[in-house]
Amino acid sequence: MEEKAKIVISLSEGKFEISGSEKFVNAQIENFKELITKSVNQQKPVPQKPPTKTETADLTQKTSATSQSNSGLDDSIYVEDDELIRIICDIPGKTKAEQTLNTALLYANARKIQGQETANVEEIKKVCANHACLDKKNFSTHIKKGDPQLYIDKGNGGARSIKLNRPGVKKTEEIIELIKQNDK
Question: Do the beta carbons of residue 163 and residue 121 sit within 8 Å?
Fold first, then answer.
């Protein structure tokens, strides 16, 4: 099992946090090494005024436009790791059933962005396990009864997959927007 890693740099609560697999965190540390070193060596942090609503909206648009990885995946939500897409944000939902459905939608959306029309249910199960929302006894039922208006569930066993339909894509976009609002 892959170990989780986390680094938090506080600079008077300006905070800079990276979490994920050890491999991912190490790669990000290398990517931001110069910025981290400059920030830590800075004598005292420069207080910044809170951004206006217009500045926040502009920053959100710029971040959305620039936070796409080479594969087209939003790297504030997803990271590719050895053929498996990892969801690196908290999965919204009050129950394991809701979290399972949201995980399925997010994962199927990532596969769709990559040009694959279907997402394997066994892969979704692994992602649920990584997010501690896997209800082994009821997983299959959660997928089957989730929301048949959002995706097509086909096949069985290891060949079982789901395919997002138009309402499923829209619902996934809403989930991603909710995630980003909660991360602010």
Answer: no
Cα–Cα distance measured from residue 136 to residue 178, given in angstroms and rounded to the nearest whole number: 27
Name 162's bridge partners: 119, 153
CA–CA–CA angle 107, 184, 58 (5° rounding): 95
Which pTM does this prediction carry?
0.62
Q: pLDDT by residue (tens digit) across 1-34?
A: 556 777 666 655 566 677 777 777 777 777 766 7
The number of beta carbons lying within 10 Å of the beta carbon of residue 164 is 23
CA 90 to CA 99: how far, in whole Å?
Answer: 10
| Spans of all domains in the chain | 1-46, 90-182
Residue 78: C-alpha distances to residues 33, 50, 101, 144, 149 (Å): 22, 28, 17, 24, 24
Length of the chain: 184
DSSP classification of residue 131: T
Q: Could you say which residues of the chain have pLDDT below 70? A: 1-3, 7-16, 32-33, 35-71, 83
Q: Distance (Å, rounded) from C-alpha 42 to C-alpha 30?
A: 19
Q: How far is CA 124 from CA 43, 65, 167, 172, in A?
A: 46, 27, 19, 15
CATH architecture classification, 90-182: Orthogonal Bundle (1.10)
Q: How far is residue 74's CA from residue 63's CA, in Å, rounded to a whole number?
A: 10
